[in-house]
Amino acid sequence: MIFSKILIRWYSNNKRELPWRQTKEPYYIWLSEIILQQTQVKQGLPYYISFIDTFPSVFDLARADEEDVLKLWQGLGYYSRARNLHATAKYIADQLNGEFPNNYKDLLKLKGVGDYTASAIASICFDEVTAVVDGNVYRVLSRYFGIDTPINSSKGAKEFKELAQELIDKKNPAEFNQAIMEFGATQCKPQNPDCNICPCNKGCIAFNKNTINSLPVKIKSAKAKKKYFNFLVLISEDGKTILEKREGKGIWQNLYQFPLIETNKNIDDKTLKTLIKAHDVIKGMPFELSLYNKDVVVHKLSHQHLHTKFWVVNVNKLLVEGIPTNQIHNYAVPILIGNFIEAFNF
After folding, report:
1. CATH number of the domain residue 336 falls in
2. Which of the four, 81, 176, 220, 296, has the lowest number of CB atoms within 10 Å?
């Protein structure tokens, strides 16, 4: 039996029942694929349900305020996905009368949609014969065919895309694409896959050569940079605090955070007191300072590690307009800030 038929038969018996698999509506498929970029199903599923409940159609999402979209996205990370999601919804609602492009080429023009997402939507919704290649597909193909070309190289991207395109079931592209992704997610897992029950083990080169753990090959990325963040959690006697909206480009663009002092190393309270006195939120006012987290919180992003301290700054009153601390949960914040807010229990 050929490779594609084995996968499709396996999928029909083993696929998880997921809400986006009950429809071919492009809005739902697009939404699920954007949420599941760099996110596992078990984490992304509650977000998908929340988005569908809050924004049942692309028009509802288009009419939403960006802050509401970011707030609903909070905790998923990679916030550019949420901003692109909102921008694309407005484009489809306003410029395309709510109709998604019905082919890979035009889908690729949408903001936040790359080769994988365009292929998924085109095949699942419109039966276009265009193969998906994501992390799961890379793993399945590299192991089965024994390919050691780095998957994060331009050569690897081209090689695996061409191979997937050769293998796709021309009569049933949607089922094949979903089958190979599901197979990689639940059977050909990154760690400790149960190869003994795998329907592909007879033809799998990695299984027969005992190279499962060395494939796929990935070029190591540059070492993450260290940054040192000192957040000032100001609390006034009338129960207000300050959140600032991050402007400009960046992963946390348009999200809220406490006033920040960034340093080139970990600092103590004595050093921070000197820096605070020159900060706009204090300007010479008397204050009391205490460190909330005795252990530095290290928040790991793909390209940088944030060594973070939260400093509670008690003041008589705020020099700028603050927000009541009981309203702090209404603001879209990075997960790093959100975790502190939950722990501090304003």
Report:
1. 3.90.79.10
2. 220
Token pair of 231 as six digits? 């957040």
Of 187, 214, 241, the residue that ends a domain is 214
Name the domain count of the chain: 2
Spatial distance between the Cα atoms of 71 and 228, rounded to a whole number of angstroms:
25
Please state, in angstroms and rounded to a whole number, the distance separating the CA atoms of residues 104 and 131.
10
What residues are annotated to the active site? 33
Closest to 308 measured CA to CA, from 234, 258, 249: 258
pLDDT in tens, the chain (346 residues): 589 999 999 999 999 999 999 999 999 999 999 999 988 999 999 999 999 999 999 999 999 999 999 999 998 888 899 999 999 999 999 999 999 999 999 999 999 999 999 999 999 999 999 999 999 999 999 999 999 999 999 999 999 999 999 999 999 999 999 999 999 999 999 999 999 999 999 999 999 999 999 999 999 877 889 999 999 999 999 999 999 998 877 778 889 999 999 999 999 999 999 888 878 788 778 899 999 998 899 998 878 999 999 999 999 988 788 999 999 999 999 999 999 999 998 7
| Residue range(s) defining the domain that contains residue 144 | 3-214
